[in-house]
Specification:
Blueprint lengths: L2 E4 L10 H5 L8 E7 H4 L6 H20 L3 E7 L3 H10 L4 E5 L4 H9 L5 E5 L8 H9 L6 H12 L3 E2 L2 E2 L30 H11 L18 H14 L24 H6 L4 H15 L3 H24 L19 H4 L5 H13 L4 H14 L4 H11 L5 H12 L16 H7 L20 H12 L1 H4 L5 H9 L3 H17 L3
Parallel strand pairs: 1-2, 1-4, 2-3, 4-5
Antiparallel strand pairs: 6-7
Helix pairs in contact: 3-8, 6-12, 7-12, 9-11, 11-12, 12-17, 14-15, 16-17, 19-22
């Protein structure tokens, strides 16, 4: 009777369930990791995403060998063939796998026909188990993130004074929305030179014979747990104190601002959420850091991240095909090229092409906002987000894009659509000053597309939006609009994308 372990590419932690369970028997518990090119071409993935995952896997395999595990590392066309050969060669009777974070991969595991049993072990890379989230959700009429976040704070005793939140408030978000005025003294991000292992992966990715997205170099991401911990320490010491106020700001040439840059490592398993939250809370207690910065960061990790994963497994599978507004415009080509006269979209997409990264407001209020008000097909937008971002996985992008970004679920996740005109972009960024469009105009040849698409969106869906949150107040502005202006807005919104080289 031989137990083997298959370590998946986003489970790169020596503390993951399967490895922990077999720690005492590691001398005779074979382990396998597999790079699958077939899996790598499911989407037009960003080159740096492929490099990050495959390099991290190779480094982790070496770490396991150094720790005394018997490790097989395969680079193959698919998962099943090398897995089947390894199972036979090692005479494995039970293959243990930590439960995948993504539904499609869980289905794939169910479909495997291997000459051994497959045992799924609990996934311990999140604070909340799926069962715990479902139990919480089953007791509520609505599933708002703020309620979930407060429950998490109480459950795990984070930033609490007895039964009350630290500082007397649960949420300091109002203090974290400063527009970028004047000279900002932003810290440079921590970067790493590719070692021989990473350089070999870069060269392999550049030679792939299937479509990819973005640029492979310069590649500066961490690929080991040691490096990921260094990024966490650097954020806590040099970026967290001033993270809060400008976390929503967007500035040309500033790819990272004060953001943590930790999501790729959390999602790979190189860091775990508990240690990240504890580091931030300890810094608050011992160094007297600003509560609005610390709370805002912790809310992203134990609020937003855990909520997205919990909701992803809670909803029915049909959720991912929802299209409440019945939007059907195809994804414009400029999402892949960055070639558009809208400077905000050009800047963000160009940044994503170079780095695979964009912070949460660039994603939500530039990319998703435009996709929503322009009426782009939700599943096509989600597929692009999944392909383009270095920290993207099915569990985080489906609910994030379909629910939060595009409101295609009709309000399961958010209380109202995150739709905004150019006024928001102009206030929270410097993108508009170098744009050929005027952020204050909604009609005329210089009208910003964010403006005419925003008002056209409200006009098209007035009936549905009337009952959503505070939208009824905003919709009344349509009645104040001149009929000829509204007609022009409709016309521009109908023809803009088709008339531009996209």
């Amino acid at each position: 009777m031989t137990t083997g372990i298959w370590v998946l590419g986003d489970q790169l932690s020596q503390g993951q369930t399967a490895l922990i369970q077999n720690q005492e028997q590691k001398d005779h518990t074979p382990v396998i990791l597999i790079e699958s090119h077939q899996h790598g071409q499911q989407r037009r993935y960003h080159k740096q995403k492929l490099i990050l995952v495959w390099s991290a896997m190779r480094h982790f395999a070496a770490e396991l060998k150094d720790a005394g595990w018997s490790v097989t590392y395969e680079i193959a066309k698919n998962f099943e063939s090398p897995l089947r050969e390894w199972v036979k060669a090692q005479d494995i009777t039970t293959l243990q796998v930590m439960t995948p974070s993504d539904r499609p991969f869980a289905k794939f595991l169910e479909s495997l026909d291997l000459p051994c049993d497959i045992e799924l072990l609990p996934n311990n890379h999140f604070l909340w188990s799926v069962d715990d989230f479902n139990q919480w959700a089953s007791q509520r009429k609505s599933l708002l993130m703020e309620s979930f976040y407060r429950e998490g704070r109480k459950r795990f005793g984070v930033l609490m004074v007895g039964d009350e939140p630290e500082g007397g408030r649960w949420n300091f978000d109002k203090e974290n929305r400063k527009p970028p005025k004047g000279k900002l003294n932003t810290p440079v991000p921590m970067t790493f030179e590719p070692d021989e292992v990473t350089q070999a992966v870069i060269e392999a990715v550049e030679k792939l014979d299937f479509p990819t997205f973005g640029e492979a170099e310069p590649f500066a991401w961490a690929v080991t747990r040691e490096q990921a911990i260094a990024v966490l320490d650097y954020f806590i010491q040099d970026r967290l104190e001033t993270f809060g106020p400008y976390q929503d700001a967007m500035v040309t040439g500033e790819d990272t601002m004060w953001h943590a840059m930790l999501s790729p490592y959390l999602n790979l398993g190189l860091l775990n959420p508990q240690e990240v939250i504890e580091a931030a809370e300890t810094a608050y207690q011992e160094q007297g850091l600003s509560l609005n910065s610390v709370e805002g960061f912790i809310r992203q990790v134990m609020g937003w991240r855990e909520y997205m994963r919990g909701l992803y497994w809670h909803v029915a599978e049909e959720y991912f095909e929802r299209n409440w507004f019945e939007h059907d415009r195809p994804l414009p080509d400029f999402f892949w090229t960055g070639e558009t006269d809208m400077n905000c979209l050009h800047q963000v997409i160009d940044q994503v092409k170079r780095t695979g990264y964009g912070h949460h407001i660039q994603r939500l209020m530039i990319l998703a906002n435009f996709s929503l008000i322009a009426g782009l097909q939700p599943q096509a937008v989600e597929d692009w987000f999944h392909a383009a971002f270095i920290d993207a996985y099915d569990w985080v992008m489906q609910t994030n894009v379909i629910g939060m970004g595009l409101f295609a679920d009709g309000g399961v996740l958010a209380s109202k659509p995150y739709s905004a005109s150019a006024n928001y972009v102009n206030r929270m960024s410097d993108y508009c000053k170098d744009c050929r469009y005027n952020p204050k105009q909604r009609t005329g040849d210089d009208a910003c597309p964010f403006n005419f698409y925003y008002w056209d969106f409200l006009d098209r869906h007035r009936g549905k939006l009337q009952s959503q949150g505070r939208m009824s107040f905003i919709l009344k502005n349509l009645d104040k609009m001149k009929p000829k202006d509204l007609e022009e807005i409709r016309d521009r919104a109908t023809h803009y994308l088709s008339s531009k080289a996209s």
